[in-house]
Queue: 3 jobs
Job 1
Amino acid sequence: QVQLVESGGGLVQAGGSLRLSCVASGSISFNIMGWYRQAPGKQRELVAAANSGGSTNYANSVKGRFTISRDNAKNTVYLQMNSLKPEDTAVYYCNAVARDYTFREYYYWGQGTQVAVSS
């Protein structure tokens, strides 16, 4: 059974920084690990993702401010968030995607961690 456990959310002033961590349990390798967020009244959106080869993808709104990294040996993904803005306030969800030999994909989600940025 795969579980994703997030940590690192909290309340910070605008311009501050936070680092989110997500540890995936289970003996499984993930092709993609990333972070999504959902603000009140809005749809969940991709923030950043990294594949097992190290390639990364960011939402335009966070480019230059957020950095995603992963430790494949530890099945852990991090999100370093700098220069935070009030519009970054949301629940942040860790996401992991595994692919079997038939290329079928399996999606896993964490429980979410709240990030609140005050102006």
Job 2
Amino acid sequence: QVQLVESGGGLVQAGGSLRLSCAAAGIVFSSSTMGWYRQAPGKQRELVATLNPGGRTNYADSVKGRFTVSRDNAKNMVHLQMNTLKPEDTGVYYCNAATFLGADYWGQGTQVTVSS
């Protein structure tokens, strides 16, 4: 059974930092592209950052230079370091795994709220 469990969300003031983590189970983690997406109230879910097995990253323009995605293949975990947070970063952040077999999995999400 595939499980993606996010942690690390919370309430932070603008300019602050948070680190999100996602623990994965039931997938071949080292061969999967791991990603973070977010959904703000009333908006569609959008890509924040992805990290493929080869180490290539992809970031939304709105977070470039502020967010960093990383992975620990030994622990089957992916992290999202978020610095200089802005109120517009508020939303539910979801962990995603795209496996080499073409399957797509999502975590339950963790709330991030940035106050102004």
Job 3
Amino acid sequence: QVQLVESGGGLVQAGGSLRLSCAASGRTFRLYVMGWFRQAPGKEREFVATIRWSGGNTYYADSVKGRFTISRDNVKNTVYLQMNSLKPEDTAVYYCAGKEGVIGVYDYWGQGTQVTVSS
């Protein structure tokens, strides 16, 4: 099993920055891809960004491209999401997720961390 714990959420003004962290523990060697997702009130959960543990290939949702950066520290087993130029529409609960394969559903999820951007 793998456990994922997010941190770093909070309240920030529009235009500000936050960095989210996702610490992975347990059988982390099973992880192949890590992702960040978010869910705003009354909306479905949506994809934000993804990264491969090996190679570091990244992919972003159009809504965050150029503003958010996903990265990983293989030694610390931690994935980060640097969020710059935040907008009120970025307000959501942000979830870290991991999966063991390239395709298919995500196998592991964190508990989420709240990000609130005030206008």
